[in-house]
């Protein structure tokens, strides 16, 4: 995983830039002055011994996965008050290695609870006892499900976020859950599309390693030490066994010790119990220039019963040279039929993996203003769009700049970035506000900045792409146009707002032209909170970019109150049109 071949001294130097980065949120202070911390938080610290390490003196990836799963399970059970099982684990990207003699620190806490499942955030860091330095190893999210009790299905209590960071994770957990629920369907569609497009390619397999050589099959007997107190096999133990056969498979291709770099999101399809024979199969699906994908399958049986599918995972490995650089790998010759399908699907997964890592994993400040949109990254752009708005809304250090007739303008300056928020209340139901503001084509009825709006494509019921034309910011300048992705979200539960998130994307069919200045929106949108049945709070956010700032700069400077006029028009628009929604058939809404 984080298993780079390196001596401890070099490892310390390699991680020096991250030494001063806070690895966990400190304890918070309640109003009565009492120090407190998240009640679901569980910490584990383990010193890495030779029995935990591979022959390179690095912590075994499988051992770390077991520790991570155990810590997360204890956090989930602390919140649920009953036993829990691992349902899924999101993508894991391993940043660095942990050597013998160093300390692994794992912190897990429940970010949000749903009906009977909950998301647990897991942070892994490494500590060198001799230099007193720490650095981040990986950050993961796992989903746990509370087991049924004699009283029936467990209804989990809600998590109460108490800090800005906890509020942010609480809000983002709902978006991550949405992505998990649609992940498998979208991935299958993309794989089918990519396979059909590339299936007839003639590839040169001369001097390539036969995929059959990398095939590994191993069986494990599940014993009591491998199971929890409910006699179910630990999810971390299954992951460790899968990592073991995947490493063997990767080694057979490269004839060297491979380094596990990432594990794709995976789901446990069913439980395993004490007495099961767990059959683990692995094979290299494809070898790219500097990395390879290994597919791993876990199946279980007892006695003469048929095999039960437990899990399938895809792991990415590299081989590092003495300078810590990835080596060039041999090509692989796939097996006929299924092998060729896996070979092509691995190419598609690599593209999806890069999109996912590029769009989701990097910080918001590292994402370019306008990201190319296509069906393969649609889900991740939508996630990034909504997540960025949620993170902006979770900020608690907004400064009131001006207020007029209950329309308030707030600003937030941070890291050389200026953001603004406009807030007002309307006597219209939240769902009606959401429906009226969701269609940007109707915005020109109340926002004079929206001169022309064209719907380009309805990606799905939650995501739409528009072209918006706005006035010139100078008297003799060109008008501006924007290509905007609008992502809509209804509340996950009664405590959540309706959301309409906006960000710029690029489309090959709509390139910039000489007649328009192409503007960019990094993060903008509405957060709509239902305060009473027919009384709603509307908050509009915008992370100002050079294309947007001129429209609001005079308001921020106190030289104008055009923001009030715009949102007064918005309130009037909502009041005038709320009745029109009531007369529409439900299917049109």
From TrEMBL:
Keywords: Cytoplasm, Fatty acid metabolism, Hydrolase, Lipid metabolism, Mitochondrion, Phosphoprotein, Repeat, Serine esterase, Transit peptide. Residues 398-567 form the START domain. This is Acyl-coenzyme A thioesterase 11. GO terms for molecular function: carboxylic ester hydrolase activity; lipid binding; long-chain fatty acyl-CoA hydrolase activity. The gene is LOC107548485. It catalyses: tetradecanoyl-CoA + H2O = tetradecanoate + CoA + H(+); dodecanoyl-CoA + H2O = dodecanoate + CoA + H(+); hexadecanoyl-CoA + H2O = hexadecanoate + CoA + H(+); butanoyl-CoA + H2O = butanoate + CoA + H(+). It is found in: Cytoplasm; Mitochondrion matrix. InterPro entries: Cytosol_ACT, HOTDOG_ACOT, HotDog_dom_sf, START-like_dom_sf, START_lipid-bd_dom, Thioestr_dom. Pfam families: 4HBT, START. It comes from the Eukaryota. Residues 38-150, 212-323 form the HotDog ACOT-type domain. GO terms for biological process: acyl-CoA metabolic process; fatty acid metabolic process. Has an acyl-CoA thioesterase activity with a preference for the long chain fatty acyl-CoA thioesters hexadecanoyl-CoA/palmitoyl-CoA and tetradecanoyl-CoA/myristoyl-CoA which are the main substrates in the mitochondrial beta-oxidation pathway. The keyword Hydrolase applies. One of its GO terms (cellular component) is cytosol. Pathway: Lipid metabolism; fatty acid metabolism. Its EC number is 3.1.2.2.
């Amino acid at each position: 995983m984080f298993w780079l071949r390196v001596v401890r001294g070099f490892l310390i130097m390699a991680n020096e830039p991250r030494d001063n980065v806070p690895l966990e949120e400190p304890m918070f202070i309640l109003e009565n002055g009492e120090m407190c911390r998240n009640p679901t938080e569980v910490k584990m610290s383990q010193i890495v011994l030779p029995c935990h390490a591979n022959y390179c003196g690095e912590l075994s990836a499988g051992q770390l996965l077991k520790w991570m799963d155990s810590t997360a399970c204890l956090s989930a059970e602390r919140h649920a008050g009953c036993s829990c099982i691992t349902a899924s684990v999101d993508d894991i990207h391993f940043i660095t290695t942990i050597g013998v003699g160093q300390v692994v620190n794992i912190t897990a806490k429940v970010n949000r609870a749903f009906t009977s499942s909950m998301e647990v955030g897991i942070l892994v860091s490494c500590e060198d006892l001799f230099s007193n330095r720490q650095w981040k190893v990986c950050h993961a999210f796992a989903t746990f499900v509370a087991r049924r009790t004699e009283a029936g299905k467990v209804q989990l209590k809600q998590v109460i976020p108490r800090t800005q960071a906890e509020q942010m994770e609480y809000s983002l957990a709902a978006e991550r859950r949405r992505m998990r629920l649609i992940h498998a369907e979208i991935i299958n569609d993309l794989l089918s599309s990519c396979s059909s497009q590339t299936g007839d390619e003639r590839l040169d397999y001369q001097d390539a390693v036969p995929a059959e050589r990398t095939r590994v099959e191993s069986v494990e007997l599940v014993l009591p030490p491998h199971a929890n107190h409910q006699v179910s096999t630990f999810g971390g133990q299954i992951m460790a066994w899968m990592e073991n056969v995947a490493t063997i498979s990767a080694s057979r291709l490269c004839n060297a010790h491979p380094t596990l770099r990432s594990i794709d999101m995976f789901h446990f399809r069913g439980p395993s119990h004490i007495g099961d024979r767990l059959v683990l199969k692995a094979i290299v699906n494809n070898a790219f220039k500097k990395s390879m994908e290994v597919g791993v399958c876990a199946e279980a049986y007892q006695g003469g019963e048929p095999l039960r599918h437990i899990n399938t995972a895809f792991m990415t490995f590299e081989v590092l040279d003495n300078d810590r650089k990835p080596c060039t790998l041999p090509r692989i010759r796939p097996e006929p039929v299924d092998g060729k399908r896996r070979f092509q699907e691995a190419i598609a997964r690599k593209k999806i993996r890069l999109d996912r890592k590029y769009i989701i994993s990097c910080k918001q400040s590292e994402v370019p203003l306008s990201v190319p949109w296509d069906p393969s990254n649609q889900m991740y752009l939508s996630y990034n769009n909504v997540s960025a708005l949620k993170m902006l809304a979770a900020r608690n250090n907004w400064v009131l700049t001006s207020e007029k007739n209950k329309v308030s303008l707030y600003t937030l300056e941070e890291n050389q970035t200026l953001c603004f928020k406009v807030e007002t209340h309307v006597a219209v139901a939240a769902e009606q506000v959401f429906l009226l503001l969701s269609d940007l084509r109707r915005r020109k009825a109340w926002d004079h900045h929206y001169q022309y709006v064209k719907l380009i494509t309805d990606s799905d019921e939650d995501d739409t792409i528009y072209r918006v034309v706005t006035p010139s910011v100078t008297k003799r300048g060109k008008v501006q146009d924007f290509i905007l992705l609008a992502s809509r979200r209804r509340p996950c539960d009664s405590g959540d707002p309706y959301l309409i998130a906006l960000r710029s994307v690029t489309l090959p069919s709509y390139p910039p032209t000489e007649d328009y200045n192409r503007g960019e929106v990094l993060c903008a949108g509405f957060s709509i909170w239902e305060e009473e049945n027919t009384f709603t709070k509307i908050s509009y956010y915008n992370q100002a970019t050079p294309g947007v700032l001129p429209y609001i700069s005079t308001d921020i400077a106190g030289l104008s109150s055009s923001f009030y006029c715009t949102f007064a028009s918005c309130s009037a628009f909502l009041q005038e049109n709320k009745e029109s929604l009531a007369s529409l058939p439900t299917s049109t809404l």
